[in-house]
Amino acid sequence: MGKVPQTGDATDELEADEPTVELEMLEQTISIDGPRELHFNAHDLTPAPLPRAWIIEGNPVARDKRLVDSGGRLPRTIMWDCTAGRFEWLYREDEVAHVLEGLVIIEDAVGARQILHTGDTYLFAAGSRYQWTVPNYVRKIAFSYSPLSREMRLITGIVECLTAPFRRKPAWKNPRHG
């Protein structure tokens, strides 16, 4: 863990790979046994309480911010964070999650566990259920979308085949392929 610089100390600047002072403050105030209040909100996230029935242990506090939301079944992008706790999560649509800060331990319905660290990306399929254990804090960006039904994929494929001859060809040519 990085150290907080003292006035006049030679370590006045944090190294690039050191966590920020804000993250250190957050880590000091959030633990599975400690206070659940977030004091730092650089991303303007708003409360997004977990359904009480999903919480298994602790009192996790979740927040989110919709970055892109077209409504309906169209894709959306959400930034989400959560303090320490353990809870179930049912995925009603496909979600590709990328961990921005912290870590989470996920466990699927058959008991397979995986740790997602900062920088990890994971696909949660629609209809799946995972148990999340957040030891301290996690922040992710999630890209959610409703998968097309088999019938809709078939229709989309037919439409693409029928309209292919009428689509405009690109003006440029790849020199390798003539």
In a few lines, what is going on in this structure?
The protein has 178 residues and is mostly beta strands.
Secondary-structure blueprint:
Layout: H1 21-29, E1 46-47, E2 55-57, E3 62-69, E4 76-90, E5 94-102, E6 104-107, E7 113-116, E8 121-124, E9 129-145, H2 150-163
Antiparallel strand pairs: 1-3, 2-4, 3-4, 4-9, 5-8, 5-9, 6-7, 6-9
Structure description:
The chain is mainly beta and 178 residues long. It is 13% helix and 37% strand. It has 2 helices and 9 strands. Strands 1, 2, 3, 4, 5, 6, 7, 8 and 9 form a 9-stranded antiparallel beta sheet that branches. It is elongated, with a radius of gyration of 22 Å. The relative contact order is 0.15.
Mean pLDDT: 76
CATH architecture of the domain at 45-145: Sandwich
Termini gap: 55 Å
* Annotated CATH topology of the domain at 45-145: Jelly Rolls
Structural class: mainly beta
CATH C-level label of the domain at 45-145: Mainly Beta
Number of helices: 2
Helix content: 10-25%
Relevant CATH superfamily of the domain at 45-145: Jelly Rolls
Tell me the strand percentage band: 35-45%
H and E string: HEEEEEEEEEH
What integer value in Å does the Rg equal?
22 Å
Biggest sheet descriptor: 9 strands, antiparallel
